[in-house]
Design brief:
Blueprint: H1 5-34, H2 40-54, H3 63-87, H4 108-127, H5 130-140, H6 146-153, H7 157-175
Length: 184
């Protein structure tokens, strides 16, 4: 195939034009997705995934169609997220940031149980396979999106999902789901 210099310049213009489009659309897209997702982080992740999927259409669709297409892709990504969360019973997940870690209302016995559980959790995290441990810590401690973790680790988003699922299953098996010793 013959490389045409004019074509490469046009492709560069589309890339620059698409980068500008993505930069301008991102805040509005996150706002749009926030009304359709469970959390701000889910909206950020869905926006990132939507823009990544849009890269497929950058060269095949005219710039005038990008915005309409982006929002159609975003709705599909949000639906995919919802289905995935429902399948993983995400509604039973408790966000660490929402927990009252240093509750002064704990009895000494409750505090001892809590400290033992935190020690088991730290030990279980330390025992995770290195890749699972890194992905888990980047997500839970540093709050990175799946796409950010994938880029940082040089792996795919699906591999990030797999490592997180493995880490969570292992931690749940070794530590429990945090409801031990409580009644409903």
């Amino acid at each position: 195939m013959m490389w045409n210099q004019d074509e490469s310049c046009d492709a560069g213009v589309d890339v620059t034009r698409f980068d500008e489009f993505a930069r301008v659309q991102h805040p509005q897209l996150v706002s749009f997705l926030r009304r359709r997702t469970a959390s701000q982080q889910d909206a950020e992740d869905a926006a990132q995934e939507s823009l990544i999927r849009m890269l497929r259409y950058r060269d095949s669709e005219p710039a005038s169609a990008w915005k309409r297409l982006l929002y159609r892709v975003a709705v599909n990504v949000a639906h995919d997220q919802f289905r995935k969360a429902r399948n993983r019973q995400a509604s039973r997940h408790v966000d660490v940031d929402e927990c009252d870690v240093a509750s002064p209302s704990r009895t000494p016995e409750e505090q001892a149980v809590y400290e033992q559980q935190m020690a088991r959790l730290a030990q279980a995290i330390a025992a995770l396979p290195p890749k699972c441990q890194r992905v888990y810590l980047l997500k839970r401690i540093h709050g990175l999106s799946h796409a950010q973790i994938a880029r940082r680790c040089g792996i795919s988003v699906k591999t990030v999902d797999k490592h997180l699922a493995t880490a969570l299953a292992t931690l749940r098996r070794k530590v429990g789901n945090g409801t031990q010793g409580t009644s409903k």
